Amino acid sequence: MNMRFRDxxxxxxxxxxxxAAFALAAGWGAVACAASATDVRRxxxxxxxxxxxxxxxNIATARIVEYRDFYQELLRQFYGAHTPSRRREQLDxxxxxxxxxxxxxxxxxxxxxxxxxxxxxxxxDGTIYDAEPVVGTEQSDVALLRLKAPxxxxxxxxxxxxxxxxxxxxxxxxxxxxxxxxxxxxRGILSSKNRRPPVGDEPLEIADWLQTDAAINPGNSGGPLxxxxxxxxxxxxxxxxxxxxxxxxxxxQVSAAxxxxxxxxxxxxxxxxxxLQANSSPPVITAVQPGSPAEKAGLRPGQQVxxxxxxxxxxxxxxxxxxxxxxxxxxNLLVAQNQDRRSVRVTLVPFPELIRExxxxxxxxxxxxxxxxxxxxxxxxxxxxQLQRGFLLAAMDGQPTRDLWKVGNLxxxxxxxxxxxLMVVVPRRSGGGYPRQVAVTLxxx
Length: 445
What we know:
This protein is an alpha+beta fold. It has four domains: about 50-145, Beta Barrel (Thrombin, subunit H), CATH 2.40.10.10; about 160-250, Beta Barrel (Thrombin, subunit H), CATH 2.40.10; about 260-345, Roll (Pdz3 Domain); about 350-445, Roll (Pdz3 Domain). It is built from twelve helices and 27 strands. The protein has helices spanning about 1-25, 30-35, 45-50, 70-80, 110-115, 250-260, 265, 295, 315-325, 350-360, 380-385, 405-410; strands at about 55-65, 85-100, 105-110, 120, 130-135, 140-145, 160, 170-175, 185-190, 210, 225, 230-240, 245-250, 270, 275, 285-290, 305-310, 310, 330-335, 340-345, 350, 360-365, 370-375, 390-395, 400, 420-425, 435-445. A six-stranded antiparallel barrel has the order 1-2-3-6-5-4. It has a six-stranded antiparallel barrel with strand order 8-9-10-13-12-11. Strand 12 and strand 13 form a beta hairpin. Helix 10 crosses helix 12.
């Protein structure tokens, strides 16, 4: 029995040697060597972080603070002198952000930057740039900044995920650059998607946000929440204190905010009347305003915008840049839908012309209190409401009107016959009285 067992073992060893030789001849050995040379630590998490890291920035904001120095305090204590406080700029590192375009556009939370007198952005490699706030929206708490970089400077931008490409339970990573100390990463899962449909103009809250157990530390607010592809799926916004629960603005809401930020209405004060998807290439029309130049030209939701005046369009920001570069109000667009391509000619309406057409007003000289009425068209809605040159337009439909964009943007939503509520400041007449505010109702023509 022992001899038979030994023969059986030897036979199996000979078979093993032949199989190994066959594997080497078939090239399996090369694969095995390559596998042994791979660093097992470089998993999908590490690769996603390395891909997204260069786009993550620290946000530092400056504000003006009042203070008294030693000598001022001495005068006050011993002599009762009332000397004015001195003012200085105090820089606080309070949040994070993420680069979303190579031209230096940065996203963060509006609550991070809204009260700043100056904003500085620190990149992952330690480079610091001043940044100018471009626009923000309270409804979604998203703010857009632009780095003040030398002409031609390009930055590494993060890629946005598709709007609804979210898997409950998938691994997610919360990135940030808190306090300018360098990158910060935490890992968790996507615990919950947003729990209710859009609610109009109401501010977003917990029910609208993504929920994750990835720690969103103080200072990470405004940084990206990414998936294992390194794509942005949300913008970190808050942490539920003591519960290990973090929240992020969904990429769908971020994309909607970008569609508004990079519309010709905001960037060039030109009424086009379409919304383009921010995370598609080429951009896709998602909405068309009734009665707008876009609707009159035949543009429809679902169409891809391929060209502007013969120039190829890669994305939403590229579209906006081509519109601005056109230098005129007429655009020739090449659009496609379901393999059907056609050319569309659109005539954009400048906001001053839109305001005059709908209300009969000419506005200029923006001030912190509003816009000065410089002309009133005869027999117009404004004239019938007895508005006069020299009055100040302070608010429209309850919203302050400190710039032409606000007035024009509100009027794009009005149809002929709709009412609009104005608050105007009437200057005092020579010889007495103070300026007074008057509420006026106009009917849009």
